[in-house]
Amino acid sequence: MTERLADLGRYDDWLAWLRKQGETDPDVRVVFVSGSAVTGGYDDHSDLDVEVLATPGEAVATYRRLLDAALDDFEVHQVWELPEETWPDGRQAFLNLTADAADMSLPTRIVDLHVSDLADEHRCVDERRHGVPHVVHDPDGLVELRHDDEATMERARLDAVRQTAARRPTAEWLVNRALARGDEVEAVAFHLAYGVNPLVRLLRIKHCPARHDFGLRYLRTDLPVGYAERVAALMPGPDLADRARATFAWQDELLAELGR
């Protein structure tokens, strides 16, 4: 596997700790780093995305052991545990290793710890979508690069284009109606939901189809140079009516190019 790995030096202690957990906990079958560290865009304010694959049926218990051990071994200032129902086969938590995570004057130290049952859907990684994972622990060679089902993704892309085209007149009406009524908050909500978000989905379908469903994140790395700034210029502002017109005009252009 050819990795595109950033300098993870500020997380060296955590990487060493994760290796130790893999060596000492028999239910920790695989540990790898994903996210911007391997896809691009990693910087001083990126978190460390950690994927742990556990013995099937043991993910929740393994997660609890790892979290308890982390709280003992590190100075953790705050923990955000996602609701239990977020994942059907595991748990996830964000561990803040700095006192004020929002203080951008200091490098960020946040660990996104996601523990799942060992299964093909987790051990097989589509590098077009998620980059080549940085493997920390995998003694059995379970991590595999494998593209997601292309037919499934193509159906999702076609559905997105069809829905955007079908909704297009109603979407602009919703934005303009809210503006005409002076309901600025409602106009902003509709502009984002039915203007900007679908526009970005169309841009992704055209320019980075494998990551068609990644939303508004990673625009600078996923779209052509200058497109992130063009999208930013359409975000809500004092001239929202003009921005909405430009947004829907760009939608029309893309829909025509995509043949819908």
Helical run tally: 10
Rg from Cα: 21 Å
What are the secondary-structure elements, in order, as H or E? Answer: HEHEHEEEHEHEEHHHHH
Q: Structural class, please?
A: alpha/beta
CATH homologous group name of the largest domain = Beta Polymerase, domain 2
Largest sheet: 6 strands, mixed
End-to-end gap: 38 Å
**Poorly predicted regions:** none
The strand line-up of the biggest sheet is 3-4-5-2-1-7
What's the number of structural domains? 2
Protein architecture, described:
By secondary structure, this protein is of the alpha/beta class. The chain folds into 2 domains: 137 residues, Beta Polymerase, domain 2 (2-Layer Sandwich), CATH 3.30.460; 108 residues. 48% of the residues lie in helices and 16% in strands. It is built from 10 helices and 8 strands. The strands form 2 sheets. Strands 3-4-5-2-1-7 form a 6-stranded mixed beta sheet. A two-stranded parallel ribbon has the order 6-8. The longest helix is centred in the middle third of the chain and has 32 residues. It is globular, with a radius of gyration of 21 Å. The mean pLDDT is 96.
List the helices and strands and how they pair.
Elements (H helix, E strand, L loop, with lengths): L11 H13 L3 E7 L1 H4 L8 E7 L4 H15 L4 E4 L8 E7 L13 E8 L2 H4 E2 L1 H4 L3 E4 L6 E2 L4 H32 L2 H24 L11 H4 L4 H6 L7 H18 L3
Parallel strand pairs: 2-5, 6-8
Antiparallel strand pairs: 1-2, 1-7, 3-4, 4-5
